[in-house]
TrEMBL record:
It comes from the Bacteria. InterPro entries: Globin, Globin-like_sf, Globin/Proto. The keyword rRNA-binding does not apply. Belongs to the globin family. The lineage of its organism: Bacteria, Thermotogati, Deinococcota, Deinococci, Deinococcales. This is Hemoglobin. PANTHER family: FLAVOHEMOPROTEIN. Signal peptide: none annotated. Coiled coil: none annotated.
Length: 139
């Protein structure tokens, strides 16, 4: 399945509703995300060398950029692929993308509650699939 205009609308709406440009919400979202990721996959924690608040800010900043530029294929692919190359240098392995994707979907479900509809889940699953395959250099 490919991203549709409906998917794009849903990811933009859910992301911007969940994380308005608010540093406190960024830290909250990142904190919930990393706590989930590290509780499910503690072996990933040594890959992160920055304070949690800074890492949360980086995560949200990059997600915001991806959400805002996903409909610009060339720009999106170049930036996200470069991000994937940097992550290789940090020790990220292909299987880590699935683990991160699971944590991301979980935190979206937990924080959005009933607003995380089946259609929103599908949109985010497709979106993260595109992000992961682009970071791996497969898209």
């Amino acid at each position: 399945m490919a991203l549709t205009s409906s998917h794009l609308q849903l990811i933009r709406q859910t992301f911007h509703d969940l994380i308005p440009q608010d540093p406190e919400m960024e830290v909250f979202f990142g904190d919930v995300f990393y706590r989930r990721l590290f509780s499910q996959h503690p072996e990933l924690q040594p890959l992160f060398h920055t304070q949690l608040a800074e890492q949360a800010h980086r995560l949200v900043t990059m997600l915001r950029w991806m959400v805002d530029h996903i409909s610009e294929p060339a720009t999106f692919a170049a930036q996200v692929h470069a991000l994937g190359e940097r992550h290789l240098k940090y020790g990220v392995k292909p299987e880590h993308y699935d683990q991160v994707g699971e944590a991301l979907i979980w935190v979206l479900q937990e924080t959005l509650g009933e607003d995380f509809t089946p259609a929103a889940r599908e949109a985010w699953t497709e979106t993260f699939g595109l992000i992961a395959s682009t970071m791996r250099g497969l898209a």
